[in-house]
Amino acid sequence: MAPPPNNKVGRARVRESVRTAYREAILEAAERVISRDGFTGVKMADIAAEAGVAAGTVYNYFKNKEAVLESIKLRGFEQIHQQMLAARALEDPLERIRSQVRGVFEYVEGRGALFTIYMQHGGVHEWIQQRIHKKGRGANQEVFARFDQLTLATLEEAVARGQVREDIALEDLAEMLGGLIDALMFTWFRQGCPPNLSEKSDLLFDMFLHGAHAR
Questions:
Q1: Residue 8's CB: how many other CB atoms inside 10 A?
Q2: Is the dihedral of CA 79, 77, 207, 91 positive or negative?
Q3: What topology does CATH give the domain 1-62?
Q4: Distance between CA 69 and CA 60 in Å, rounded?
Q5: Most confident of 128-132, 141-145, 156-160, 209-213
Q6: Which bin fits 30, alpha (ψ -120 to 50), beta or left (φ > 0)?
Q7: 199-210 pLDDT tens trace
Q8: With b meaning 16 or more CB within 10 Å and e meaning fewer, what string describes 136-155?
């Protein structure tokens, strides 16, 4: 005879599922309202109204709008990471890198307003700290480390297949690729986030593999 169901565990799972759904709905609403109205003038009440919940409900999940923005950022990093993981299905490591770069650019381009807000609220400093000093704050450091690990693993495979020079250290190759990505994204940001970032992913990848030498 099967044991009776654990109602306490079941109820806990339902509560956690409901909390997750509410949190996601609030973050989706916050993305829309912050992208539309900017960060400075937005109030928690505006986010609550966009989500269709009481302001108190938003405060149950987030201390203030800075915490909301931080959660949006980390959520975005996780979504990008999942896109990069999905690209592992591609057998060719170089095509995998190309797909990952395009995926990152498409994601950022689709959220140009949010990217601008992130960069204006300490994002540039955080980016530089991580890229140059390999330092970050908590979850941020973990996210960047996962990106680096994926890139290094793919480049290592490309080197083993003879697709990429083996006389350059993997870490240097990864930094060169990352530097090209950073430079193009910062240029795009300075230009006002025009709708052309993803179009440049193939050019960037070609520059990484072949340089700027005339053909």
A1: 8
A2: negative
A3: Arc Repressor Mutant, subunit A (1.10.10)
A4: 15
A5: 156-160
A6: alpha
A7: 999 999 999 999
A8: beeebeebbeebbebbeebb
Between CA 106 and CA 89 the distance in angstroms is 19
CA angle, 190 then 193 then 197, to 5°? 110
Burial zone of 11 (CB within 10 Å; 0-12 exposed, 13-18 middle, 19+ buried): exposed
User: What tokens appear for 130 in the block?
Assistant: 């991580």
Specify whether the CB–CB gap between 104 and 144 falls below 8 A. no
The ranges assigned to domains in the chain are 1-62, 70-210
Task: Check if CATH label 3.30.565.10 holds for domain 70-210.
Answer: no
Burial class (CB in 10 A: 0-12, 13-18, 19+), 6: exposed
Rounded CA separation 167/82 (Å)? 31
For residue range 3-46, list pLDDT tens digits in order. Answer: 555 677 777 777 778 788 999 999 999 999 999 998 888 999 99
Taking the CA of residue 106 as centre, how many other CA atoms within 13 Å lie in the half-sphere pointing to its CB?
Answer: 11
Task: Kindly list the distances between the CA atom of residue 176 and the CA atoms of 41, 46, 56, 113, 160, in Å, as whole numbers in the listed order.
Answer: 39, 42, 47, 27, 19
Task: Report whether 81 contacts 142 (CB < 8 A).
Answer: no
Rounded Cα distance between 86 and 99, Å, is: 10
Q: What is the token pair recorded at 135? A: 């330092």
